[in-house]
Structure formats: C-alpha cells, structure tokens
Amino acid sequence: MSARFLIALVVVSSVGTACTTQESFTNLNPDGPPAIAEVRLKESYTNAANPTTFLTRRVFGFGTFPDATADVDHDVTSASASGQSMRIIMDELLLGNRLEEIQCRGQVDADAFSSVPDGATPDDIAACSVNTDSLKTSCRGDHAVCICHIAGGCGAIAEGDPVGVLDVNNDGAADNTSFKAGAVGIKCGAIDVPIDLDMSYWNPSGDQQVPAMGGYDALGPAIVIVPQGGNVPTNSTCGLTFGPDVLDKQGNAVCAPPAGRPASCSGAIDTCQAGLECTPGDVSAFSFKTEGLRVTVLGLSQNATNVSATTAIFVTANAPIAATSIGGITITPPPPVDFTITQPMPAQIKFTPTTPLTANTMYTITFPVTVTDTFGQPLPAPYVFNFTTAP
Fold it and tell me: Would 164 disulfide with which of 105, 116, 336, 365, CB 3.0-4.6 Å?
C-alpha cells in the first residue's frame, strides 16, 4: 500500500510529461480535463440456453475498448447488486493526495489518517516517519503530515505537533493508506451508497494496453471503488460523484465524455482528444441500472412434490434483505402454519417448521413487495412459491 502511494506522489509531479513527441500506444492524454475513458463493473445476465439461471461477468459499462467484444462492452442495465466493484479508468493522472490519505501512529482528527499536502515528496513522508524523539525537529513545514488537529491535543501530543507516520517496518514510507471519504462516490437515485474506504484505492499505474497479467481489470490509471460490503441498491439508476478537490495537476475536475472512449479511438488514447472532450466536473454522461431484487428457493423447483414435512426451506436473494421487511412473508393454507423465519445470512431466509407439516398438502409461501433490500428497494412484484408435502 505504501509503495502505491509513493508512486502516486512521484508520478503526479511529472504528469505534464506523460505525452511526448514520440508516439506510443501507452501515451496518456494530459491535455484538457481528466476524462473517464472506461468504467468496468460487474453485471448479472442470462443466456438463451438457460434463461432462469443468472450468471455474472465483468464488462465495460462505459467507453469502448478496441479489442473488446459486444458481450463485455455495452451499457449496463442489470449491474450486480452484490459483490460489486468499479474500476474507473482515466485518460490521465490525477493528484493522488486528493484521493488517498496515509495512516498515522494515532488519531490526528476524526481518525488516524492524514491528508498529504500538495507538493509533498517521499522525503517529506520520511521526515515524519522518524522515531518519536526526533519528530518535532524533523516533521515540520508546509509539507508535514500526521499533525494533530484536535483542540486539546491527541493524547499526550499537543495540537499542532506531529503524531508521526505509521511506519512499523522503518522504511521511511507509510505502512497503510485509506481512500478519502467523499472523494469518489456512487449515488443511486437519492441514495448515497456507503463506500468501503479500505478496499477502494487510486492506482496511478497502467495504460490503455492490456497487460499480460490482470487483463482488462489492470488497465489504468484507475480509481477502484468498492461499495460497503460490495452492495448497491437493487432496481436503481446509479452514477458517480466526485469531490470538488479531485483534480489533475492543472487544476481540472474529472468529467465524463458523452460515451467514454469512442469506438473510433483504436490507438493511443492521446490521439482521441476530440472524442474525450467534456465539461470539467460533469460526470452525468455515465450511468448504469442495477438488477431488480429477486428471491430463489434453494433445492426445490416451483410446484415441487413429495417434500418432507419436517424439512427446512432455504431462500436466497441476490442482495441482502432488510430484516425488518421479512415479517410480511406469509405461508398458507390456514390456519397459519407454525414456522420460524430466520436470516442465517444477510441474503438468505430460512423457514423451519416447528411441527411437521400436513401430509400430501400444497403449501404456498408468498413474498410481498414489502420485502426489501437493505437500501429499502422492494421486490418488483410479489413472488409466490408452491410445494406439496409427501403423502
């Protein structure tokens, strides 16, 4: 992690020289605002051979990559609601210190992570990584990091004094980084999706040439955004948000061209400036739709017969279910069957009969639209499942 952050510090200082007079397929496009070239994300899909079985794959949901086929290069209308992560591939480098912060030896403000000032170098980080006795004389100046910003002090350290960079291995670099809260987000309708700041990161390396290892998901430079738990709201139209201080070295904000990298751009991305023009700060051109909430009974087909009168029935969902919403699930015939309904896992519901069911009887489990995911998004329609017990 620390190595990645140091790369970001060094490479940002040379972003202006990324495009040279010597043409290369790896050239970036530092002219103009930083544009989103492509976005990689996971979608759910079915095929004609088995339309009731849902599969997943990683696709280009925005922008066209030269050798990508249509099955993995298209607008996304059924993005996976769980296990999701997004790789936002940029046409140029961003200021890494606007996207990530480094871990300190203790709390410095709301947490133990510190921003890195513009213009800071690896030497500045090293100066604040020294032993505690030397910190006050070594870690100072405009580029100092891990400074206490709490009125009244950070424990034994006074406000304004250095807490020190967490550097257990004593290599002069931060041991850990964290993505900055609010730097990049996912918004689905009115819902701001919580972001996993530990799993999300800025990768300043890479280019528009597919590497031997990693495939399309190693293209860069890229921002990798992971929602908390990998979950996004079901049946929603979503887009990206960027904090106002997420900029390139020229001070330009991120933007999204009308369709990302155009199909006509088959060579170096710095030759495609016309297709990558966009208004700084406007990322509205990119959006995606998530799959609807659905539930599936495990191990039993619809209208199954000869079902054991004492067996537990497991139902799985494609997204975590809100525990407060399962109370409306009904089981008939009347009088009400004595079942307990539990959630062994967030996306699973278990129906356990407390007494044996009546033999040779058809039972119906009804999931109303009041059943929702944890974001409050409901089932698109009621789901009804029938089964018949053994004679």
Answer: 105
Structure tokens, 189: 């309708």
Distances (CA, A) of 183 to 47, 104, 178: 37, 20, 11
3-state secondary structure of 19: coil
Is-cis flag, bond preceding 382, omega within 30? no
- Strand, coil or helix: what is 372? strand
Write out the DSSP string of 305-353: EEE-TT--EEEEESSPBPGGGGGG-EEESSSPP-EEEE-SSTTEEEEEE
Q: Smallest Cα–Cα separation from 249: which of 5, 38, 34, 101?
A: 34
Residue range 170-213, pLDDT digits in tens: 999 999 999 999 999 999 999 999 999 999 999 999 888 887 78
* Other Cβ atoms within 10 Å of 115 Cβ, number: 18
Percent of the chain with pLDDT over 70: 92
d(CA 182, CA 131): 32
Please give the Cα distance from 54 to 58 (Å, whole number): 14
Q: Of 229, 357, 368, 206, nearest to 295 (Cα)?
A: 368
Residue 387's DSSP bridge partners are: 304, 363
The answer to whether 109 and 181 have CB atoms below 8 angstroms apart is no
Query: Residue 11: phi, psi to the nearest 5?
Result: -70, -30
Instruction: Find, among 91, 116, 97, 115, the residue nearest to 254 by Cα.
Output: 91
pTM of the model: 0.91
Q: Provide the sign of the torsion angle of the four alpha carbons 315, 58, 247, 211, taken in this order.
A: positive
The whole-number pLDDT of residue 25 equals: 52
Q: Which of 88, 292, 311 is nearest to 206 (CA)?
A: 88
Handedness of CA 359, 362, 364, 365 (dihedral sign): positive
The answer to whether 324 touches 296, Cβ cutoff 8 Å, is no
| b/e map 265-281, b = 16+ CB within 10 Å | beebbbebeebbebebe
